[in-house]
TrEMBL record:
MF terms (GO), sorted A to Z: calcium ion binding
Location relative to the cell: Cell membrane
Keywords carried by this UniProt record: Calcium, Cell adhesion, Cell membrane, Glycoprotein, Membrane, Repeat, Signal, Transmembrane, Transmembrane helix
CDD domains (alphabetical): Cadherin_repeat
Source organism (scientific name): Himantopus himantopus
Protein name, entry field: PCDGK protein
Highest taxon in the source lineage: Eukaryota
Gene3D superfamilies: Cadherins (2.60.40.60)
Segments forming domain Cadherin: 53-161, 162-269, 319-425, 432-544
Transmembrane spans: 552-575
Bilayer topology annotation: Single-pass type I membrane protein
Length: 672
């Protein structure tokens, strides 16, 4: 079981710059049969010196270059890795330059000269420096390069790159000539001093120059060789731009090129061992062969994939079982109000979902519509909160499998109220030419309810909350109105000198946004007796009523018939009693009949319907000659949902007359 080295091992030849360097192998153990994987890591020793590309380097630096300017130097190469690789650089002592050692992404080092003190060509035309490269071995190995610097009269402006670092990515199978990146620099000088030439920096590795090409005029960096992700994943390319002046100005930039892996390596199946023939009585689980599969690609490109065909065994599932949607009334038709979201873990057609609106209520289909593909619910018409507050419907989500599976989602749409209805006055009725007059007696104390303004608002909530205020009044100090009740009260006790007629304009406002309002006009009469009110109302009748004469003749006819009947009955009575009574007794009997006690009095109640207190009643007793013995009738002014409003008028319509029988204003004489 010993593992032996069969020949001399050279880590640099086997692995190059890769670290760690390992060799893999497999070991088969029999009885029992087992397979083991192993690896041998080749450790590096410091057996290589750093090497510069050349023993000398020449730089031309203008005397106008400001302190802080940087000049890349050619890098040394050391095939060793780890601590044995190139670790640092050293520069010989001088008054003008310092050395700045930088580290690349891959860990390698490179050096830059940094001008600390400006050059003066008249004082010193050239400088000679020594750059030493050291690795980290023990003892360290080193290499040297002579740097010759020519100080010349310079170009005033050096080229400037628009960015110091460029980043690009390219697939490893990209053909030669493909554009990777386009670098750009500008030079403020004119003529040759402003013409820019692009090139690789001196410390760009030779391997990079083999894989990439740079157009010196345009700055286009293109693929030149064959890239391999499995060999190098990232390239750090250093470029420079020089102008064509006598002493060219130089600018430097860096391009990071990431190589993207493609699936360009097929899996390799290795049969480690095969056991044949297999006995016919071999038990289940007996090992027949040992196989190993490898793929040089990375990530998903290196997996072995087994495709599993899908079966429609999952119903669509919505993110929630029900939705509550709130929509303002008076909406614009055609707006989307909801997106029903559902998922199906199946694949292909088994996961293709369609959305359908189940119409249990026929009106739902005329108001709502759903997009079959994405589940967006649209509102087709404008909604009215006062017409309908809530809509309920069911959305069915069905997949495309065979047989299809479906899920139902409940959707409730609530119509929220807007303040789009002004208060409507029910009493006093606004749509009539008749005058509503409420009566209050003089001397009525403060706080007495005279009447009430009744109104409704079709909106809901605060939009329907009505407040009442007095907008105009004949006497603002006499009446007040309840802010939310609409009840009109006396604000103080009525006096004798108060006006007999009062008109109040009541402003009704809701609490919506914006506020909507309306007004109601209330007329109030101050009267000591209802007779005064009735007298005023009778004066409202037309002066020349053609039915007046008809009424007079009807009354006259009734009086004549009654008088004839009375005389007939009186004659019969006298005839009957003539035989046994004296004439004086007959005269006394006749006189007592003329001066009989009045019968029951008939009266008319002038009662205002609505909200007048129940005890506000007055009885009116009329004599037979009052107001030219006219008949009185009750005629409604108009109908009202809150009650009828009646007043007593003279000369009313036929069929509505009610004769009033009263006591005589004076006693008849014996001749009468």
């Amino acid at each position: 079981g010993a593992l032996l080295v069969s020949e001399r091992i050279d880590r640099e030849e086997l692995c190059g710059a890769l670290s760690p360097c390992s060799l893999s192998f497999e070991i088969v153990v029999e009885n029992p049969l087992e397979l083991y994987s192993g690896a041998v890591e080749i450790q590096d020793i410091n057996d290589n010196d750093p090497v510069f590309p050349s023993s000398q380097a020449r730089l031309e630096i203008s005397e106008s270059v400001a302190a802080g300017a940087r000049f890349p130097l050619e890098s040394a190469q050391d095939p060793d890795v780890g601590i044995n690789s190139l670790q640092t650089y050293q520069l010989s002592a001088n008054p003008h330059f310092a050395l700045d050692v930088q580290t690349r992404v891959d860990g390698s080092k490179y050096a830059e000269l940094v001008l600390e003190k400006e050059l003066d060509r008249e004082e010193q035309r050239e400088l000679h420096l020594v750059l030493t490269a050291l690795d980290g071995g023990s003892p360290p190995r080193s290499a040297h390069v002579q740097i010759h610097i020519d100080v010349v009269d310079a170009n005033d402006n050096a080229p400037v790159f628009n960015q110091s670092t460029y980043k690009a990515s390219v697939r490893e199978n990209t053909p030669s000539g493909t554009l990777v990146a386009r670098i750009s620099a500008y030079d403020l000088d004119d003529g040759p001093n402003g013409d820019i030439v692009y090139s690789f920096s001196s410390h760009t590795p030779a391997k990079v120059r083999e894989l990439f090409a740079l157009d010196s005029a345009t700055g286009d960096l293109r693929v030149k060789g064959q890239l391999d992700y499995e060999e190098t994943k990232l390239y750090e390319i250093y470029l420079q731009a020089k102008d064509k002046g006598a002493v060219p100005g130089v600018a430097h930039c860096k391009v990071l090129v990431e190589v993207v892996d493609v699936n360009d390596n097929a899996p390799e199946v290795t049969v480690t061992s095969v056991y044949s023939p297999v006995p016919e009585d071999a038990a289940p689980g007996t090992v027949v062969a040992l196989l190993s599969v490898t793929d040089l690609d990375s990530h998903d490109n290196g997996l072995i994939l087994v495709q599993v065909s899908d079966v429609n065994d999952n119903a669509p599932k919505s993110s929630q079982d029900s939705y509550d949607v709130y929509v303002l009334e008076n909406n614009v038709p055609g707006i989307p109000i909801l997106n029903v979201s559902a998922t199906d873990p199946d694949l292909g057609r088994n996961a293709h979902l369609s959305y359908t609106l189940l119409q249990s209520d026929p009106t739902v289909g005329h108001i709502f519509s759903i997009n079959r593909e994405n589940g967006t619910l649209y509102l087709l018409t404008s909604l009215d909160h006062e017409d309908q507050v809530e809509f309920s419907m069911m959305v069915q989500v069905q997949d495309g499998g065979s047989p299809p599976l479906a899920t139902n989602v409940s959707v409730s749409v609530f119509v929220t109220d807007l303040n789009d209805n002004a208060p409507i006055v029910l009493y006093p009725h606004p749509n009539t030419t008749a005058t509503y007059t409420d009566v209050v007696a003089p001397g009525t104390p403060a706080g007495h309810m005279v009447t009430k303004v009744v109104a409704v608002d079709a909106d809901a909530g605060y939009n329907a909350w009505i407040s009442y205020t007095v907008l105009q009044a004949t006497d603002p100090s006499l009446f007040s109105v309840g802010l939310h009740s609409g009840e009109i009260f006396t604000a103080r006790q009525l006096r004798e000198d108060d006006a007999p007629q009062h008109t109040l304009v009541i402003l009704l406002k809701d609490h919506g946004e914006p506020v909507l309002s309306t007004s109601a006009t209330v007329s109030i009469s101050v009267a000591e007796m209802v007779k005064e009110v009735l007298t005023d109302l009778t004066d409202m009748a037309p002066a020349n009523d053609p039915r007046k004469h008809v009424t007079f003749y009807l009354i006259l006819a009734v009086i004549l018939v009654s008088a004839a009947f009375f005389i007939t009955m009186l004659s019969v009575g006298i005839f009957k009693c003539y035989k046994w009574r004296q004439s004086k007794e007959l005269f006394n009997s006749s006189r007592s009949t003329l001066y009989r006690t009045p019968g029951p009095l008939h009266h008319i109640d002038a009662v205002r319907g609505g909200f007048t207190p129940p005890n506000f009643y007055h009885q009116v007793y009329l004599t037979t000659d009052s107001r030219q013995s006219d008949l009185l009738c009750k005629k409604p002014f108009t109908s009202s949902p809150l009650g009828s409003r009646q007043s007593t008028m003279r000369n009313g319509e036929p069929g509505l007359y009610h004769q009033i029988v009263g006591t005589a204003s004076r006693l008849p004489t014996p001749a009468e």
